[in-house]
From TrEMBL:
Entry keyword annotation includes Metal-binding: yes
One Pfam family it belongs to: Rieske
Keywords: 2Fe-2S, Iron, Iron-sulfur, Metal-binding
Residues annotated as signal peptide: none
InterPro entries membership: Rieske_2Fe-2S (IPR017941), Rieske_2Fe-2S_sf (IPR036922)
Protein name, as recorded: Unannotated protein
Gene Ontology molecular function: 2 iron, 2 sulfur cluster binding; metal ion binding
Domain Rieske: 2-99
CDD domains assigned: Rieske_RO_ferredoxin (cd03528)
Length: 106
C-alpha cells in the first residue's frame, strides 16, 4: 500500500493523478470517501484524472469523448467506451490516503 496524499488536502469532487507501483491512478475524493481508478480511459489513451467528477453518481467522465466510468466498479455507462477500467482499494489511514494498486483490484 502506498500513501498518495493527505486526505484534508484533497478537494471533494476532484481527481488527482498519482503513480502507485508504476501504475497511473486517478485518486478521487467525494465528501468523506476516496476512490482510486486506473488513470487511462479504456476507449482512448486519455488521462481520466483530467475529466469531470460526478459526485452524485460516483463517476468520472473522460474529457476526450465523454464516457463516464463508475468509481466503484470501473464500468462505463456511456459510449463510446465499452470496457471497464481497473479500480483499486483506497482508504484513509491516520489522515493519509492509501492506495493498493497491485493485487488490490476490485
Amino acid at each position: 500500500m502506498t500513501v498518495v496524499a493527505k486526505f484534508d488536502e484533497l478537494e471533494s469532487g476532484t481527481a488527482h493523478r498519482v503513480i502507485v507501483d508504476g501504475t497511473a491512478v486517478a485518486v478521487v475524493r467525494i465528501d468523506d470517501e476516496v476512490f482510486a481508478i486506473a488513470d487511462k480511459c479504456s476507449h482512448a489513451d486519455i488521462s481520466l484524472s483530467e475529466g469531470l467528477v460526478w459526485c452524485e453518481t460516483k463517476q468520472i467522465e473522460c474529457i476526450k469523448h465523454g464516457s463516464a466510468f463508475s468509481l466503484v466498479t470501473g464500468v462505463p455507462d456511456t459510449l463510446p467506451a465499452t470496457q471497464p477500467v481497473a479500480v483499486f482499494t483506497a482508504t484513509v489511514v491516520n489522515g493519509d490516503v492509501v492506495v493498493e494498486a497491485k493485487d488490490g483490484s476490485k
